[in-house]
Each structure stands twice: as C-alpha cells, then as structure tokens.
Hints:
By secondary structure, this protein is of the alpha/beta class. It has helices at 15-34, 69-82, 98-110, 124-130, 152-163, 188-196, 244-256, 273-284, 305-317, 336-350, 356-369, 407-420, and strands at 4-8, 42-47, 50-56, 85-91, 113-119, 141-143, 177-181, 204-205, 213-220, 223-230, 260-266, 288-294, 325-327, 382-387, 394-399, 429-434. It is 36% helix and 21% strand.
Amino acid sequence: MSxxxxxxxxxNVGKSTLFNRLIESREAIVDEASGVTRDxxxxxxxxxxxxxxxxxxxxxxxxxDDVFEAEINxxxxxxxxxxxxxxxxxxxxxxxxxxxxAVAEILRRSGKKxxxxxxxxxxxxxxxxxxxxxGLGLGxxxxxxxxxxxxxxxxxxxxxxxxxxxPDNDEEHELPYLSVxxxxNVGKSSFINTLLDExxxxxxxxxxxxxxxxxxxYNKFGHDFVIVxxxxxxxxxxxxxxxxxxxVLRSVRTIENSDVCLLLIDATRGMEAQDVNVFNLIARNRxxxxxxxxxxxxxxxxxxxxxxxEAEIRERIAPYTDVPILFISAKTKQRVYKSLDIAMxxxxxxxxxxxxxxxxxxxxxxxxxxxxxxxKGKFIKIKYVTQLPSPTPAFALFANLPQYIxxxxxxxxxxxxxxxFDFKGVPIQVYFRQK
Length: 435
Ligand code: GDP
Ligand code: GDP
C-alpha cells in the first residue's frame, strides 16, 4: 500500500520550496546510493519513521500567474484521484484569492484528507494574518515558512497522522506483484488484454482489490503472479492526456504497489524523456524493471535494428543499465509470454540472497585488485562485506574510513556484484560503513 502526498496550490505560493525541504535529507541518501538523477517533482520523505512519496503537482504545469484556472482544476482533480493525502499550500502574503476558494471548494467536496499549509509565515505578525485561512472551511491550518523550515514539524506530524495505519510499501506478498506502466498509447491496455482477455477463465479476483487498484491473479504456463492495474487502465474512454504530469503521476501508485514493473515504450518513438522519468521512478522505488519495446511489428527491421535501439535505450538509462530489454508486439503477441518469463526472473533476482562467504571471496579480491584511492595520504581498508536483510538487494562494506569512498568506487563494486551474480532488472544499493 502506498502513502502518497500531493502538493497543490496556485503558482508562486511556495510549493516547490516546500517540496525541496520535505525531501532534502532523505534525497541525499537515496541519490548517493543509487546514482539516479533527482526528479524535481517527485521524491521520498520520511517522518516519525514513516516513509512516503511527495509529488509537487505544480512542477508539472506552467508556473506563471496567468495559468488557467482550468489547468489548476485538472491538477487538483488528478491529485484527488492519485494521492492519499493532499497538502494544499496557500500564501499569507496574498491572502485568500478566488482561485484558492475554488480549489478549497473542490477539495471539500472530494472527501479526501487535506492538510492546509499557510506558507510564508516568516514572523509572528503573519501568524495573525494567517487566521483568515480558516475561512477556507478545510479545518485546521498549519502556519509554515518553507524558506526557514519553521512550522514544518507540526505540519509533518499531521501529514503522517493523516496517512493512518497503511503498512509500509514493501510488505511481503505471497505471489509476485507485476504491473504494466508507460505513457499513454504505448499499448499497456493491449498488452494486458492480450494476457487476460483470451484467458478469461484463468483470471480470478484477488483480495486487496480497491477502488484505486485492481489485482488480478494470473496462473498459467507455469507462472503464478498478480497483475496490479490502476483503475482506469482497462476502462473505456479513459482520459488521453499526453501531458507528462498526468501519466507520470498516474504511474506512481501502480509502481509503488508492485514488485516488478514492465515498462512499455513505443518502438516508433524510442525512449523519450518521459519514459526515462518513469524508469527513474521505478528505480528510486527499488522495484524490478523490464523494458518492453512495444509495437515492434511496425518497425522496418534490418539486422541492426534491435542492437541499435537497445544501445540507445541503455544510453538513456545510464548508469543503471543492467536491465532486460525485449522487443515485443502486444498486437501480434510476439514475445509477450517471453516477457513474463523474464519478469519472473527479475522478481527472483530481487529476492536473491548471496552467501556472505561468496560475497567476501569475490569482493575482497576485487578490492585487492583495485583498492579505493587513498585520500590525504590515508589508506582505505575494506575488511568485510555482507548483504543486508532488507526487502531489496543492499550490500554493506565495512571499512576504516567509509566517508572517503566516492561514487565511482561504489559503482565499481556494484558492477563486480552484477558481473558475478544475476541482479538483472533490479536496483541494488551499496553502502560503506564504519568497521
Ligand atoms: P511555487 O510556484 O508554488 O512552486 O512557488 P516557489 O516555491 O517557486 O516559490 C515562489 C516564491 O516564493 C519564491 O520567490 C520563493 O523564494 C518564495 N517563498 C517560498 N517560500 C517562502 C517563505 O516561506 N517565505 C517567503 N518570504 N518567501 C517564500
Ligand atoms: P495504452 O494507452 O498504453 O493503454 O495503449 P493502448 O493499449 O490503448 O494502445 C494504443 C494504440 O496502440 C491502440 O490503437 C492499439 O491498438 C495500438 N497498439 C498497441 N500495441 C500495439 C502493437 O504491438 N502493435 C501495433 N501495431 N499497435 C499496437
């Protein structure tokens, strides 16, 4: 189950400043470990020991004062659909505007959990000014200054409380949870229908299906897994909004609820920025991933087509390139079932445990062959390696001076692990710790 916080509000109220503050400490750790470039609009935060996702919806729309009311409306409706809690940011300097009132009205009617943050309350006088925001009719208000961070602790207490008792993201399922993600029109519905429609008799509903996600058990050809589907994917007349924000936001919940994601891209378009964004979303959530280049039937092929396209894709997803890439057609069914085999292998890789003895044998030799460069005349010694008991693969190397280990060396170690043990399609974490 997911915990998703969406930040909504007019342009210039301070949404992105607040977003950066909410994710900053957490982000440093994640980025260092994964090498994944940071997304300006999506990040992970942690408060009182609870992890949650933060989405700055404002970051995806035109950020100008004359942004259309219709655009804000769309943004708010989508946040209502996709988030668990909405953080409505308003600006004490401008007071309640017509647009604030309009947004409040939609939020009130939605029945969603809403937390109101009155931003730019940089001093005590402004606390008095902020009282007018009770007039929004959304209950308690939280006075904050995103700039200085004041008030954000109380705000986060309330946010975390609003999530209720949802369990953590990586709860253990008995069966693998698989999802199909990608931007509009890549063929997600076609892919799922190819699997499900013809085999209707094997489809059974699984407990846990909610308004937000449909869980379908698939048990055939020796596979037994659950397809996680966001409501709407299989709906007729779904919204076809080709705006990045909408498709990325729509993917978040699905990704968080699955173990392995099949990322579909369109063969006629190649891997574009938006696809890379979804890929990064999968990686930073530490989910398994298989890239499926769909509509391969439409491509005029020569002997080099697959190699060339594969190389282009790996270039776009660097440095995390140890990912299976298949060329498929949901229409002709080419390699659709093969995709499932690979996805199941990725799932196994994600649950893989390497014996400490095997790890040490490999990595201590690798370290000896290429030791970490000394820093200020100090030699870094790595003594011991172990896989951590985390839900996804993570390794800890114990060293005398772990703070001096740099990113390239981590990458070297990660590559050694990948060369020797199959972790294809799985993000892995490498940590250096004090011995
Ligand atoms: P967004 O458009 O809602 O994402 O707003 P931004 O985060 O880009 O902020 C808009 C402007 O408000 C920027 O100039 C920020 O520096 C400023 N700002 C943000 N938070 C605060 C705050 O707490 N106090 C003050 N005085 N200014 C702020
Ligand atoms: P979604 O928005 O990602 O769910 O995409 P759809 O499954 O609705 O597919 C979008 C369009 O692409 C439809 O017209 C499909 O018929 C077409 N399509 C999907 N997969 C393939 C494929 O493998 N080959 C071809 N030629 N067309 C496809």
